């Protein structure tokens, strides 16, 4: 039996941001957080929603040394018709959390229970869901290995928590296409590794390539496979899609690519709009070939933060591809409009992807 969620409200609520146009991402947090603890032999216990604040950890906590840590990211949206607040496919995030847990030798937590915890927390933080178009309340479920032992083995103690950050509109001045470096030295994931998990180590390992790319004027890095440096994987915290000959193409997940929920949703939307969707290994040489033939018409990243991020330029070594005349392409625009419409209740949701809070 999973524990009931106790609610202890803060006596010092913070002032909500008054100017929602300057919210940004992940800089302000709401008043409360959800927490539940796990101990071997006892299972999950002590579920609670408590005031947001620091968490006590032993300096020897395994998460701090061996990065036994996983997380998720999803958003609560205020419906544009005023009919309340809804989450987008939260059970997919809960399932992915459990898949990451499995790979990182961490305990799983019942999917329905995770979704119930998200809903309970958003209910308490209702007033923290911003109103301005394009804004949302970002939820960050996280699990860390706690305890007080330095041995290299799976911990016997864990903390699962959810924090909330009101988030600004990703695009303030219309959709700005990004400039991407196709990375030819560093790699993100290798077969048999942890590329398909949302786990801290993947991001720590990516920082150097990202920083070097930023120094050279790029917004993001497109990763190639770790064995041959040849097949497209993904960008930053987004999956990658190409439109070639009118077909939507993306790389297969296998165990190197994060199985994005936005990716999966867009693949379905595209197929239902009558597009051919191809999920297969994509050689970077094939992208250049299509570009030269003029059949590569769009490239874009997909992920919860931006939904869609159109690519204006991709550079590989000394070669460059310029796309869509520096604007968002028609496929990216159509996918964006439909998906954001469903997320905010402006477009009917025939898929049952949204869950009212
Ligand atoms: C979270 C994430 C994505 C996108 O997943 P969504 O579920 O669409 O938000 C893609 N790649 C990486 C590496 C990620 O961390």
Bound molecules: pyridoxal-5'-phosphate
Helix count?
7
Tell how many strands the DSSP assignment holds.
18
What is the level-2 CATH architecture name of the largest domain?
Alpha-Beta Barrel
Quote the CATH topology of the largest domain: D-amino Acid Aminotransferase, Chain A, domain 2
What is the CATH top level name of the largest domain?
Alpha Beta
Low-confidence stretches: none
Distance from N terminus to C terminus (CA atoms, Å) equals: 23 Å
The radius of gyration over CA amounts to: 21 Å
What summary fits the major beta sheet? 9 strands, mixed
CATH superfamily of the largest domain: D-amino Acid Aminotransferase, subunit A, domain 2
Q: What does the model show?
A:
The chain folds into two domains: 163 residues, 2-Layer Sandwich (D-amino Acid Aminotransferase, Chain A, domain 1), CATH 3.30.470; 167 residues, D-amino Acid Aminotransferase, Chain A, domain 2 (Alpha-Beta Barrel). 24% of the residues lie in helices and 29% in strands. The chain has seven helices and 18 strands. Strand 2 and strand 3 form a beta hairpin. It starts with 5 loop residues before the first strand and ends with a strand. The model has no long low-confidence stretch (mean pLDDT 96). The chain is α+β, with helices and mostly antiparallel strands and 357 residues long. The strands form two sheets. Strands 1, 2, 3, 4, 5, 6, 7, 8 and 18 form a nine-stranded mixed β-sheet that branches. Helix 2 packs across helix 3.
């Amino acid at each position: 039996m999973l524990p009931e969620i106790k609610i202890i409200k803060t006596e010092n609520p913070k002032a909500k941001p008054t100017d929602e146009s300057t919210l940004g991402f992940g800089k302000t947090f709401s008043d409360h957080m959800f927490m539940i603890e796990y101990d071997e032999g006892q299972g999950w216990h002590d579920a609670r929603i408590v005031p947001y604040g620091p968490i006590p950890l032993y300096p020897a906590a395994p998460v701090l040394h061996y990065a036994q840590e996983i997380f998720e990211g999803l958003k609560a949206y205020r419906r544009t018709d005023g009919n309340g607040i809804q989450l987008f496919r939260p059970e997919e995030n809960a399932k992915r959390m459990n898949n990451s847990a499995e790979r990182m030798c961490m305990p799983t937590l019942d999917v329905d229970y995770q979704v119930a915890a998200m809903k309970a927390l958003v209910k308490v933080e209702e007033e923290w869901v911003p109103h301005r178009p394009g804004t949302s309340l970002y939820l960050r479920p996280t699990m860390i290995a706690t305890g007080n032992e330095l041995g290299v083995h799976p911990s016997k103690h864990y903390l699962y928590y959810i924090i909330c950050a009101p988030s600004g509109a990703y695009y303030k001045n219309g959709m700005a296409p990004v400039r991407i470096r196709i990375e030819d030295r560093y790699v993100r994931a290798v077969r048999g590794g942890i590329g398909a998990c949302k786990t801290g180590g993947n991001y720590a390992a990516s920082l150097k390539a990202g920083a070097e790319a930023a120094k050279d004027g790029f917004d993001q890095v497109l990763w190639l496979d770790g064995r041959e440096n040849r097949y497209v994987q993904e960008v930053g915290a987004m999956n990658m899609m190409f439109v070639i000959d009118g077909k939507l193409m993306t790389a297969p997940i296998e165990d190197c690519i994060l199985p994005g929920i936005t990716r999966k949703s867009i693949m379905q939307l595209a197929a239902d709009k009558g597009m051919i969707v191809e999920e297969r290994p994509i050689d970077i040489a094939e992208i250049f070939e299509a570009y030269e033939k003029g059949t590569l018409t769009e490239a874009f990243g997909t992920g919860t933060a931006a939904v869609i991020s159109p690519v204006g330029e991709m550079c590989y070594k000394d070669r460059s591809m310029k796309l869509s005349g520096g604007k968002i392409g028609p496929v990216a625009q159509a996918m964006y409009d439909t998906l954001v419409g469903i997320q905010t209740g402006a477009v009917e949701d025939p898929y049952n992807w949204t869950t009212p809070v």
